[in-house]
Amino acid sequence: MAILHNLGFPRIGRQRELKWALEQYWQGSSTLDALEHTGSTLRQRHWQDQAGLDWVPVGDFSFYDQILDLSFLLGNVPERVRGFQGAALDNYFRVARGRSVQSDGAACGCHGGVAAGEMTKWFDTNYHYIVPEFTAETTFQLNAERLLAQVAEAQALGVAVKPVLVGPLTYLAIGKAKDGSDPLALLPRLLPVYGELLEKLAAHGVAWVQLDEPILVTELVPAWQQAFEQAYHQLKGCRVRILLATYFGQLQENRYLAAHLPVAGLHLDLSGNKDDLAPIIDLLPTHKVLSLGIINGRNVWKTDLAATLDWLEPVAQKLGQRLWLAPSCSLLHVPVDLNSETVLDAELLSWLAFAQQKLEELQIIGQALRDGRESVRAELEANHQAITSRRRSTRVHQPSVQTAVAGIHPAMGERQHSYAVRAPKQAALLQLPAYPTTTIGSFPQTAEIRLARQRFKTGQLSAAAYEDAMKAEISRSVLAQETLGLDVLVHGEAERNDMVEYFGEQLQGFAFSQAGWVQSYGSRCVKPPILFGDVQRPQPMTVAWSRYAAAQTAKPMKGMLTGPVTMLNWSFVRDDQPRSVSCFQLALAIREEVLDLEKAGIRVIQIDEAALREGLPLRKAQWQAYLDWAVAAFRLAANGVADDTQIHTHMCYSEFNDILPSIAAMDADVITIETSRSDMELLDAFQDFAYPNDIGPGVYDIHSPNIPTEQEIVSLMRKAAERVPAERLWVNPDCGLKTRRWEEVLPALQNMVKSAKILRKEQVL
Ligand code: GLN
Ligand code: ZN
Question: Is 602 in the pocket of ligand 1 (CB under 6 A)?
Fold first, then answer.
């Protein structure tokens, strides 16, 4: 019956073994051999974990990023690292991480450091890949040793090898032409290399190769549609069979194209909806395999197996041998194994499935189709119980929250008056100079702060002692800000480990796994909170800290919150209600916090929406619907305050052009954004749009150890003032300062304050 396979397995390891091995190697405390050994041990273990499948992915392992692996495999290595004499893997890490001038030793014939490859998000996931670099001159040359060695390694272990690679069109589409040329023009040079690779794989006894083309679920212009035809017609002569994998959405208008490309099989992501299924079954030529992604590869919930079988059984009848089954996408995006969890309670655990459990679900489905549901009765029964318990749980469903959401009315998202009326009232209350200075919230997270938090968590430090330690830290940072002469102060966020986790831990409806790590990039992993139930705020979350901080100074103290959209976008979220509903629940909780802060005398409140843009759907046609509810949620959280309470928001990215109307619709009094590296050109968009409220364009690049000089800041702000009226400009860093050291932060902020003084003198308001 159905063939079972997997599109990719998390490579980081149950205990994040890969992370530790990489970091040891980078620090120089272990050898290349040791690193390679860890790699091969992990691959072997993960293949064993997938042994029950008919086809197992090979090539999904990577020491940093599978797209960077592909760039090396295709011989598309940036010019700047070509002269390197050392080990190939070291050169690979040079592209991945960059090298400073000091650390770039004699191994390199070049002078100076090496810039790291640019990193960006893999479609709408939180995984970051290294962007392939192109120019009109780029050529390709096959360098498949690493992949072929892994194929041989797997074959030697008796693994049913299915190499997985990103396909040529997606590879070109996700790259960047440094010279502004069209990457698609490189296709004729790229295809022969893919062809050569497929032939080599065939020669090594490979039967199937999975080529991932997730851009097929996005809107394609005709040139790219034609390029798909061209590419796959050219590859069709190869002796391997190609499984064309699409995921992260539906094919929709690309169905006909995808169904008729000359490949041996097509994979669909059915995790969102099944709209593609019936039309694809009709369109797909009968000699082709249809692989169905029936298990959500991006979320952590158990699959409802009975419900899946209900619709799948007739499909299996119809497709017979042509049916393959798999998770919707690579399992890279979920944690490895639920069995590593020791703190989550049994009930919650019973609702979840991580990578390992998802593959078990797949096998149960496979067996049910092959031998009948009776043959897996116990498994189906256990699954049914878990699904029912979650559906009925009072931890998930809180009538009072649902009533509150139902009671949301548009007026709750409206400020009392427009910005034009509010601004003078706020000016009267806050008494700020022109070019007011502020920071984005966090101050350096020193080793002492982290230690105190950790000791408090593990019970080594009493609540009272912890509170004292945090208060001391708050006092220190408030004093530092007063000494610097900043205008709107912050408490410094010493008590926060992470801007989402901090709030999630205090809200009902969130759970935190112990080992639910997901690779974000390279050795970096994140542990997304699990939003499992209706959200409620049992008590104020930040008021005590803010009130304490405010009492240390006569200057305005800014309260600091994470916005509902960012909390949603950085968590594993519920699949039993629309994202928008979860977001409104979060918004109501944040709204209560905002109003409590206001009551406590905090009259400047910042609500960070660092991840608002990330939530944009892959298809432009769906953007507006998302933006509408995201903005509504922010407004609901923010806009219950009085006219003279000033709302700030912060976003740390730089692409605003295409979403500015929505940003403006948030109606925050002040928006602080990341601009220092763009030389303020980014503000062009704000100028063209005539953005109506205050803007704080970042003048201090917090990703760099460089300290901006007074002159640099003044010159950046002058450029800003050419685009935005000076009376609506603020002076602030690009983002929070938690990753920097005080030794850097103090002089940088000092220069910022001095610059503001210079600007004020120049200005005749
Ligand atoms: N207030 C947060 C901080 O300063 C904002 C972080 C962010 O935008 N990513 O750390
Ligand atoms: Zn930021």
Answer: no
